[in-house]
Specification:
6-stranded parallel sheet; 12 helices; binds NADP nicotinamide-adenine-dinucleotide phosphate; alpha/beta; 6-phosphogluconate dehydrogenase C-terminal fold; globular; 15% strand; 2 domains
Length: 327
Amino acid sequence: MSDTVLFDRVALIGLGLIGSSLAWALKRDGLVGHIAGTARSAATRSKAVELGFIDSAHETALEAVADADIVVICAPVGACAAIAEEMAPGLKKGAIVTDVGSVKMAVIRDVGPHLPEGVHLVPGHPVAGTENSGPESGFPELFEGRYCIVTPAPGAHEAAVNKVVEMWTKVGSNVELMDAVHHDRVLAITSHLPHLIAYSIVGTASDLEEHLQRESVQNGDLIRTSEVIKFSAGGFRDFTRIAASDPVMWRDVFLNNKEAVLEVLGRFTEDLTALQRAIRWGEGDILESLFERTRDIRRGVIEMKQAGSFSAVEPGQEDGSDPDPKS
Ligand code: NAP
């Protein structure tokens, strides 16, 4: 192994945005010998080989993990239990199993019990992403300057934890160690709730769209224009970007971080009702003082260099600088 090579053989289970980005970054920096990969569909597996971010494609997780020093599960959280069960007999002694899931307690619950003695589980979550998915959406810079939260259980194998920390550090992340329960609570408010709100607002707007169309006659034809789309730059546009995130991934996040999400949702609903009341009773001072406070939060986000986004560049946001509360 050369000095820069961290792992002789890596197995990636899931070859979408996160799996392909990690593979590109590991390859770019010469951190791996061989990357073996698998995904659910043959189309994704062959696309990954064609693009060149994996060295070998395998039909099953069991085959992909053979002789791997580290296995990184990059599939939706809801698929982790079945993946762990399938790959377990093929894991070599001393191998590290990690993941990138946006929820941590459920992954520990679903993966841990399947792993054989001598295999080390070190869960992780790169807090970096875009609304795009699939093998073509990845790029090596995705993790640069972004946090990666690693959530080892108390007493976890120290050398394995250090290796996972080193991997994320070398691909450009700022690594934080955190308790998994705490992770799920923090992410419920910083990521899961914002996504839920975006899905809900865009859903409401789509329900109202029928009533928010303007009809005009052009060259004798009746033209119907959606005012929701036309005037989306008023704020709605940012929600549509978040609400375009992968449906399966987000379904699994909400179903697997149920308690923490319901807790912050309850609190959020109360705060929203208080704002509704302030508007109804003309309590401008309440509104203004909240908006002052939230403006300070935005300044804090910018100061911590977490405001930029690698989201697909859309017309009018060429600098990609929109806030992106990705998981
Ligand atoms: P993605 O682009 O949709 O890719 C998911 C990949 O998992 C696909 O290659 C899919 O295969 C594969 N897959 C699904 N079920 C599988 C199974 N049972 N066995 C093997 N492979 C399977 O998703 P992603 O955005 O990379 O997200 C992957 C994980 O990263 C999720 O757990 C998510 O919570 C986490 N995460 C996502 C973001 C983000 O912003 N997207 C950020 C941080 C963490 P097919 O293509 O064949 O369907």
